[in-house]
Fold this protein.
Amino acid sequence: VQLQASGGGLVQAGGSLRLSCAASGLSRYAFSRYSMGWFRQAPGKDREFVGTISRSGNSTPLSDSVKGRFTISRDNAKNTVYLQMNSLKPEDTAVYYCAGKFTILTHTPTRVDEFDYWGQGTEVTVSS
């Protein structure tokens, strides 16, 4: 399983970006059995949870720091998950990583150590 994150860049505060994470090495059916998460890591800080989307897309827990500004969605037909980021702030500056976990039960993972596969990260810089 390979995850490829893209869509990062430089944006002014208040702007928007949409990140994408494409999964390869999986059939569409298999991808639909994966919970997908987004995490971020700022320089000198630990990797932190941003949000997760359940297999069905019905559950999308988000961290308090991004609630109301970020949304997660997925297109299982394209093996792709998205992170729409609006009203960006300088403190959102980080490398953003997508992650995947094969999920059998209804649990929606939110911790770094719960995920099995990671993308390479895409950098987001928000200028003030």
